[in-house]
Design a protein that fits this description.
The structure holds two protein chains of two kinds. By secondary structure, chain A is α/β, with parallel strands linked by helices. Chain A contains 22 helices and twelve strands. In chain B, 66% of the residues lie in helices and 9% in strands. Chain B has 20 helices and ten strands. In chain B, a hairpin with a 2-residue loop joins strand 9 and strand 10. The chains are: A alpha/beta, B alpha/beta.
Chain lengths: 598, 585
């Protein structure tokens, strides 16, 4: 979390040609829109230069000359200008935002689709929260860039250029006099930027510390309370809070100086116009109307300049975001479907592990030379203490990870030569911690597979005894499940997972049995459902129930990543080895109270 | 709406605390606006003088006047911002302190029913929104009000008909802000909702990625995501249709009042009812009104968001702490630390299922009690009741003969040294962590002693910075066992009368455990100790062992007695021997 928030806080340079080029690549499909927006923006900013000039004309040609008809004409022209400006800026906002939205759509889809292709190991390393930031916050920062940034920068620049040209055409000497204050403006802005950046950094650091402190003290409330440290912790917080306050007061001080200074520079320009322009009016080289227009222009001139410095911040944020987004998009998936798969689906369901070794982190072997075989329709039970490597075997068979050495064969074909989606579609998985998506019961059984008809899924639910409780739900199969199925009991979730697996009708079934205790009635239902689910399929089960183990064709006993014993229940008990100890520890109790009838 | 408005009233006492600053700040606003109002008036004289071809000697005077006015205005504006925005930061500081102080008094059940992220966002984002009301919100609304009033008075005096005419488009603009603003607000919420649907989808997909992959559902997930995304774009565009019209419309309406001025005002000038200078000044004043017209909508928005946020903050501040000192709480005479539990049944607030049933226990001062039982048997719950992290029913738990509910909270907790099941260390130095509970300055020697008791001293000596080593994200990552041992040192360092260890040795190997227990026996000599554990090795030497099952005591006695019973305890013992064998297999 700390490393993460650190990464988020970094604000690098505002412009990176490489990133920018790549970002502009996203605009390419919408070139026409971009061009249109640009056209609109140029037209709108061109028109925005007109009103002061019309004021000049009105004063010089009509008002001072007493020409009422002319005044009306100019006023009408003014109204037309307003209408046209309105139309163009509306068009520009519309086209630009539409484009921005489309680009965000594309980006979001690209990130999401890419995430779907990445392998499970990637998700082990990257917490969901961080990935979420890519899809949401970072994409938003880029939206800012496309809608408020890039193109409106052109607008600002064009407005500036248009004003400069108009002023020069009206009176180049007075224009030069006004432009003489521009360096002053830049100097002030530059100094301000440097100063305020410092206090911004202070504010950001302080707020990060405030957040960390709050987070820690909320999580650790019990400890603080038990040790009576409310006072001390409060004083600590006050110190951090005070630093935040001081940093803010510092930045307020700079802002309080900056804005009045900007206005002072504006006043300087007006003073110049009054003095120097006034003299020209006396000399007859400048009309009174032009003087008034000049004053209005000077106001319009300074606005885009301060706007431009605001765009800088947007650009900076967008660059940092795009850097992170591109880094994600450039992460190649470690596990992909082969170019020319030897098989598209599992036909028989024969599974074989041959000398399979695997480690999540190099040098730390979790499985060592695992070999076993399951003929089609056979049932294999994996047993062992926690951390023996049972779940890893399951993950390898679905090709969530690739083996370090050795190979896994399905129907005699190395699973790396299988079509990845085809392989996984042929393997049904029921995990201990049943994951339900928000959506209806039917959605959760179907998981978006349109081939599964309602008939098929309701039959599946019926077979595994899930239909009873589904029927009791208020809206049956259309009942919405809360976040992660919070409205259902553990046993009900198990049954749903069984129904889901059955509806997909896989050749091979992988099962990580639930350990949590449920009431006897549900337990019996689950056991029966399990038998129906397993019938006619090859199955590999991380077994916790004695009944499952006893009914297995073969029991594989894992200990610290190695197969230590293999055989039937009776054979293994006779060995008086690891299985016997495990049996004494974990399974024997199940005999009590729940009669085995198989 | 009414409750929303009221939530901001809660800020009045805070504002009152800074009333001198506020009054001074408002005075500065007034002065700033007054100074600003002078500028167009100077232009009137400039234009009228130029029109009349008066003396050119006056021009430098006017130029400096304009600069002077701007300087004076700037001076006032500087103080206005510094005082008003500064005050808002002061209040933010106070509020943030108050929020923490309040959170510190809340009981554990509060934190269980409110997740950390939510509380955090109230203390940060919502506080921010409230700060915006106090700072820019107040400053701009006052500025706007004063500007509008003064400008209107001046304009009416120049020419009242013209003023009324020019105000029609401005009024329309303000009206639009209010009308369209509401619609925009609604659409915006719609978009936020859709956005959170997208987030939820992504969140869920990423959290369940293993299932998605296992069922090869990547394509259909992408399809669903696309549908949500599509909907989001559609919602956004309907906002933009409104939004896109909003600003251009405002500009157009404001422009329209300029046209009115140009045409009608121009006619007045031609008819000599208005001087050209006054006409120009009119343009100037109208320009000054542009910003306030737009700002109204913006300010309203700040206030709306601020009051909603304040309401969320109030939901924290107005939640009363459930567990606090009884009105007649009194500290008992110092005694040895006797614990007595009488007919204790307990269920968590809001849950009908009792977690503890009819517990009867007496631990004489200086003795060791051990509690064993499966996960969920109620061990930790029982321990949580002793320092009143949750409140036991009255008359059930007595320490040194006094009901824990009648103890002053601070005094009660000072009596207990607690090592919780889930080790929580602060990101600070090891030294600070061990000294955490000590209210007096504590020397390195004592800290080393405490570290020695939990056998963590050797480990610490191998760290480059020894006791100054930082724990957690910014420093070293301690192993689970090391963390637990630091937590034990922390509890020992306060030299409590009753020491409580809630499964505090679970991550320590049996050999180290043995040694820690030995050290602890030394330390706890003359003190009462309560140990909770899964492991028989931890508890077998206790004076009294209690076996909990589903909230009731099923066996009670010392190790030998319980072994003879051949019940739950004996079975647990047998299994643990097997487990040890298996571990070495």
């Amino acid at each position: 979390m700390a490393a993460d928030s650190h990464e988020e806080a970094v604000l690098g340079k505002a412009y990176d040609a490489r990133l920018m080029r790549r970002l502009l690549g996203y605009v390419r499909p919408y070139r026409a829109s971009a061009a249109l927006a640009l056209l609109y923006i140029i037209a709108a900013s061109g028109l925005s230069v007109l009103p002061p000039y019309l004021t000049k004309l009105a004063i010089d040609r009509s008002i001072r000359a007493g020409d009422m008809k002319g005044l009306t004409e100019i006023s009408a022209l003014y109204v037309l200008t307003l209408a046209a400006t309105f139309a163009f800026s509306y068009g520009q906002t519309w086209v630009m935002n539409l484009m921005g939205q489309r680009i965000m759509f594309d980006l979001r889809m690209q990130i999401f689709t890419h995430l779907q292709r990445l392998d499970v190991a990637f998700f082990d390393k990257n917490p969901v929260g961080r990935l979420m930031t890519r899809v949401t916050t970072d994409v938003d920062a880029l939206n800012e860039l496309f809608t408020a940034g890039v193109i409106s920068v052109f607008g600002d620049i064009f407005t500036l250029a248009a004003i400069v040209i108009t002023l020069f055409l009206m009176n180049y000497r007075l224009a030069l006099a006004i432009f003489s204050v521009v360096p002053l403006l830049f100097l002030i802005t530059l100094l301000f930027k440097i100063k305020v950046r410092d206090s911004f950094r202070r504010v950001r650091t302080a707020i990060a510390r405030i957040n960390a402190f709050l987070q820690e003290n909320i999580t650790g409330t019990a400890v603080v309370q038990i040790f009576n440290q409310e006072r001390k912790q409060f004083e600590k917080f006050t110190r951090i809070n005070r630093e935040h306050l001081n940093a803010n007061l510092q930045s307020i001080f700079y802002y309080s100086i900056f804005y009045p200074l900007l206005e002072l520079v504006g006043a300087l320009a007006v003073a110049l116009i009054v003095w120097y322009g006034g003299l020209q009016v006396f000399a007859g080289t400048l009309t009174l109307g032009a003087l008034v227009a000049f004053i209005q222009y000077s106001d319009r001139f300074f606005r885009p300049i301060s706007d431009l410095s605001e765009k800088y911040t947007i650009l900076q944020a967008a660059m940092a975001s795009s850097e992170r987004v591109f880094r994600l998009l450039d992460t190649p998936p470690a596990i992909t479907s082969p170019e020319a798969p030897k098989a598209r689906e599992v036909r028989h369901g024969e599974v074989e592990f041959r000398d399979v070794s695997f480690s999540y982190n190099a040098g730390d072997e979790v499985l060592h030379k695992i070999s076993f075989r399951a003929a089609p329709g056979e049932r294999i039970a994996l047993v062992g203490a926690t951390g023996a490597g049972k779940s890893t075997i399951i993950g390898l068979l679905s090709r969530f990870y690739d083996t370090d050495s050795g190979e896994i064969l399905v129907d005699g074909i190395n699973i790396r030569d299988f079509d990845l989606q085809g392989l996984r579609r042929s393997i049904g998985v029921v995990l201990q911690d049943v994951f339900l998506f928000s959506g209806s019961v039917a959605d959760n059984l179907r998981l978006g597979n349109e081939e599964i008809t309602f008939d098929r899924l309701s039959r599946a639910a019926e077979t595994v005894h899930a239909s009873q409780f589904i029927g009791r739900l208020e809206r049956g199969y259309d009942s919405q499940l809360g976040e992660r199925g919070s409205s259902l009991s553990v046993g009900q979730k198990q049954l749903l997972a069984f129904a889901r697996a059955l509806a997909f009708d896989p050749k091979i079934l992988i099962l990580d049995e639930a350990t949590s205790s449920i009431d006897t009635e549900t337990e019996l239902m689950i056991r029966d459902a399990l038998e129906k689910l397993l019938a006619g399929r090859t199955s590999i089960i991380v077994a916790h129930r004695l009944s499952t183990i006893q009914n297995a064709d073969r029991i594989v006993v894992l200990h610290r990543g190695r197969i230590r014993e293999m055989g039937s229940h009776q054979e293994l008990l006779k060995l008086r080895g690891i299985y016997w100890k495990l049996y004494q520890l974990q399974y024997k109790d199940q005999l009590v109270g729940t009669p085995i009838d198989h | 709406m009414t409750t929303r408005k009221k939530s901001l009233l809660y800020l009045l006492p805070y504002l009152d605390r800074y009333r001198r600053k506020m009054v001074l700040g408002f005075a500065m606003v007034l002065l700033t606006v007054f100074a600003g109002m002078c500028a167009p008036w100077v232009l009137k004289y400039v234009v009228d003088d130029l029109q009349a071809a008066f003396t050119r000697e006056k021009l430098p005077f006017y130029a400096f006047l304009i600069l002077g006015i701007a300087a004076v205005e700037g001076f006032f504006r500087f103080w206005m911002r510094k005082i008003l925005i500064g005050a808002s930061r002061d209040i933010e500081y106070d509020l943030r302190n108050d929020i923490l102080a309040h959170l510190q008094r809340m009981s554990l059940s509060f934190f269980q029913s409110n997740n950390t992220g939510d509380i955090m966002s109230r203390a940060t984002n919502d506080l921010n929104a409230v700060r915006s009301v106090l700072g820019p919100g107040i400053m701009y609304s006052v500025t706007t009000a004063i500007t509008v009033v003064i400008a209107t008075v001046i304009l009416l005096r120049i020419n009242w008909q013209l003023t009324l005419l020019a105000y029609i488009p401005l009024g329309l603009a303000s009206f639009t802000v209010k009308k369209v603003g509401q619609q925009i607000h609604d659409k915006f919420e719609q978009i936020q909702a859709q956005f959170s649907a997208i987030s939820t989808k992504a969140q869920e997909n990423l959290a369940g990625i293993r299932i998605v992959k296992a069922f090869a559902r990547e394509d259909s997930e992408v399809r669903e995501f696309r549908a949500l995304n599509d909907q989001y774009v559609r919602h956004s565009m309907s906002l933009i249709r409104l939004w896109g019209i909003f600003y251009p419309l405002m500009t157009a309406l404001i422009g329209l009042s300029s046209v009115v001025l140009l045409w009608w005002g121009g006619l007045q000038v031609i008819h000599a009812r208005l001087s050209l200078g006054e006409f120009v000044a009119f343009i100037g004043y109208l320009a000054m009104l542009t910003w306030p017209t737009i700002a109204i909508g913006w300010v309203i928005n700040i206030f709306q968001r601020g009051s909603a946020s304040m309401e969320r903050i109030l939901r924290i501040l107005e939640t009363r702490p459930e567990i606090c000192d009884a009105p007649d709480a009194r500290a008992p005479e110092p005694a040895g630390g006797t614990l007595e539990i009488r007919k204790l049944s307990f269920s968590y607030p809001g849950s009908p299922r009792p977690v503890l049933r009819n517990i009867d226990l007496t631990v004489p001062a200086g003795r060791v009690l051990a509690i064993v039982g499966h996960t969920g048997s109620g061990k930790s719950t029982l321990l949580n009741l002793l320092p009143r992290l949750y409140d036991p029913p009255p008359g059930t738990i007595f320490i040194d003969g006094l009901d824990v509910r009648d103890w002053p909270l601070a005094e009660l907790r000072r009596t207990l040294g607690y090592v919780p099941q889930e080790t929580f260390l602060f990101s600070d130095t090891i030294r600070e962590n061990i000294a955490f509970g000590c209210n007096r300055p504590i020397g390195l020697q004592e800290i080393e002693w405490a570290a020695g008791v939990s056998n963590v001293a050797q480990d610490i000596d191998t760290f480059p910075h020894k006791y100054e080593t930082f724990v957690g994200e910014r420093g070293i990552t301690l192993s689970g066992g090391q963390k637990q041992r630091v937590a034990i040192s922390r509890a020992v360092a306060v030299s409590p009368r009753i020491l409580i260890l809630d499964d505090a040795l679970s991550n320590v190997d049996t050999y180290t455990e043995e040694r820690i227990l030995q050290e602890l026996t030394e330390v706890t000599r003359g003190r009462t100790a309560i140990l909770v554990s899964h492991r028989i090795s931890t508890v077998k030497n206790a004076d009294q062992i209690v076996v909990l099952q589903e909230g009731t005591i099923v066996e009670k006695g010392n190790h030998q007695e319980l072994m003879k019973l051949q019940g739950v305890y004996a079975e647990l013992h047998r299994k643990q021997l097997l487990e040890e064998e298996l571990a070495t297999a």
